[in-house]
Automatic annotation (TrEMBL):
Gene: LOC102200060
InterPro entries reported in the protein's UniProt record: CDC50/LEM3_fam
Record localization: Membrane
Family: Belongs to the CDC50/LEM3 family.
Keyword ATP-binding tagged: no
Biological processes per GO annotation: phospholipid translocation
Name recorded for this polypeptide: Cell cycle control protein
Keywords annotated in UniProt: Membrane, Transmembrane, Transmembrane helix
Length: 340
């Protein structure tokens, strides 16, 4: 009797939901549904792929290598020099208007920012402005946590220590007159990095927060002096620093350096003419067989130039159409006689 009462208590309610009697619908994948479905999906993918590919190829991209590997390169002397702030120049000519907005990137090759230990070599608490981690950096920053005098390094870690430090200026020569092209460095970093992930200590002046610490070994200036022209663009919220700290996933990458300021003669982009890029050459890449380049590019509704997505859509769409033809042949050969 007790056993029967226990079973009655544990028994689910006699409803359509608990007893799994809800009405259900299961499609029957017949040839009349599958084959047209594959054709429609294939045609849709091909259409999207063509649109993406045409748009990507309409984007203007100009790449200029300045590694200085060959003797004829304008920067060959700097690539072999140990002198800081070595100067070299690159000249190029635009025969037509380079449509705006124009973005100015620097690119690195054979540089593995995705290496695990490299990516972990930073102190997030320090970068968030926590002063207690200024004097005692995280062990994850080792060997770039203390200098040879046992003074804490701020910001610590391999990523910060290897920050890109080449600088560029761009000039345009027209009718014998050389004009500086205005470069805009504001807002080039991710919004979340600038407003959420990274913080400067609430100390005024900012320099006082770094008392008792030293700059990263490979830096020429401490973090609070990264931008002499804009005091608000110093410390851990410096735009160039934020761009560098967001690691690249692949060994060949480019990072945004500046935007061409769309004002005056440059409202529509870079006009046709002769240009010169004056480079302050500091960043060494020959030790790891790397390369450096400057990239100018504009964008479209789909972003920057990238043919992979369009090609992928075309391949998948074509495969769907081919498979639909194969299924139609198989169906016609093996199914139609039975139906007769």
């Amino acid at each position: 009797m007790v056993k029967q009462e226990s079973e009655s208590t544990n028994r689910p309610d006699n409803t359509a939901f608990t007893q799994q009697r809800l009405p259900a619908w299961q499609p029957i994948l017949s040839a009349g549904i599958v084959i047209p479905g594959f054709v429609l999906i294939g045609l849709a993918f091909i259409g999207i792929g063509v649109a993406l590919l045409v748009t990507s190829r309409s984007i203007q991209v100009l790449e200029l290598d300045y590694t200085g590997d060959s003797n004829g390169s304008p920067c060959s002397s700097c690539s072999q020099s140990v002198i800081a702030n070595c100067k070299c120049s690159l000249n190029f000519t635009l025969t037509t208007l380079f449509q705006g907005p124009v973005f100015f990137y620097y690119g690195l090759s054979n540089y593995f920012q995705n290496y695990r230990r490299y990516g972990a070599s930073k102190d997030d608490n320090q970068l968030y402005g926590d002063l207690s981690y200024f004097t005692s950096p995280s062990s994850s920053c080792s060997p770039y946590d203390y200098d040879s005098s046992k003074k804490p390094i701020v910001p610590c870690g391999s990523i910060a220590n290897s920050m890109f430090n080449d600088t560029f200026t761009l000039t345009w020569t027209v009718n014998g007159t050389t004009n500086n092209v205005p470069l805009d460095g504001k807002g080039i970093a991710w919004w979340t990095d600038y407003n959420i992930k990274y913080r400067n200590p609430s100390v005024t002046p900012l320099k006082n927060a770094f008392n008792g610490t030293v700059k990263p070994i490979n830096w020429a200036k401490p973090a609070y002096e990264l931008d002499a022209s804009d005091p608000s663009n110093n410390g851990f919220v410096n735009q160039d620093f934020l761009v560098w700290m967001r690691r690249a996933a692949l060994p060949n990458f480019r990072k945004l350096y500046r935007r061409i300021d769309a004002s005056g003669d440059y409202q529509k982009g870079l006009p046709a003419g002769n240009y010169t890029i004056d480079i302050t050459y500091n960043y060494p890449v020959r030790a790891f067989n790397g390369a450096k380049k400057i990239v100018f590019s504009n964008v479209s509704w789909m972003g920057g130039s990238n043919e992979f997505l369009g090609i992928a859509y075309l391949v998948i769409g074509s495969l769907c159409v081919v498979m639909s033809v194969v299924m139609l042949i198989v169906y016609a050969k093996f199914k139609f006689p039975d139906e007769e």
